[in-house]
UniProtKB/TrEMBL annotation:
GO terms for molecular function: ATP binding; ATP hydrolysis activity. Residues 5-250 form the ABC transporter domain. It comes from Nesterenkonia aurantiaca. One of its GO terms (cellular component) is plasma membrane. This is Peptide/nickel transport system ATP-binding protein. PANTHER family: ATPASE AAA-TYPE CORE DOMAIN-CONTAINING PROTEIN, OLIGOPEPTIDE TRANSPORT ATP-BINDING PROTEIN APPD. Keywords: ATP-binding, Cell inner membrane, Cell membrane, Membrane, Nucleotide-binding, Translocase, Transport. Its main location: membrane.
Amino acid sequence: MRTIIQTHELSVRSETGEPLLRDISLHVEQGERIALLGRSGSGKSLISSCLAGGLSPTLARTGEIEICGRRIRDSHSVSVRDVAAVRQDSSDALNPLVRIGAQLMLPLKRGRSRVDRKASGGACDAHVLDLLDAVGLHDGHRIARSFPAQLSGGQRQRVCIALALACGPQVLVADEPTTALDVVSQATVLSALSSNLSPATAVVFVTHDLSVASGLCQRAVVLEAGRIVEDSAMRDLIASPAHPTSAALVTEAMRRSEPVS
């Protein structure tokens, strides 16, 4: 299996020199879906920014990152080639002054999707509707004409997934994409992610919620204080967590799944 993501001694320091990520060595294979798990401040979102771009300019990154065989020298760039990101705040990810259809059309016209570079505008329009339908937004014509503020949080998050799919990425980095959503919207967004990604696309799913991650990912990487403390198959971590942080995540997930009396 081809290695898509490889990091070696990846570290991030704050402006004052405080270590925020410490010697992260990680590999992700083609088509593999991994969860980065941990409490707030554990470093999981910093890893996602290092991989997908958008690391704060006040932070200093060291160590090596390779994605699809290319070394990523600058994590502060807005985007990284072959990587699509789904962020926690869909409002920030979408241009509030541009209709949804036009935003989805942009990556299609750049030729980074299944649509041919020379496809007509009509073909692109049809593919926009196909993308929206694929993520459960079946009223595609209305959604495409809408501005982001006219949609619910769950709808906007599904649009962000459609936007990522339109890019045809080798890697999808999803950073807490369901945190701000209700349970029903969470399930819909996860289903959209799980059902519509190419089997060859590697997924890095960032969350603090093990119950959410277990429905999507086969492997779990647990972080604490900027370090990896456990890296194992999801089923093994749930059955027999090897680190106290992992055990606490399992306990919390089980507590949440208990029926309310």
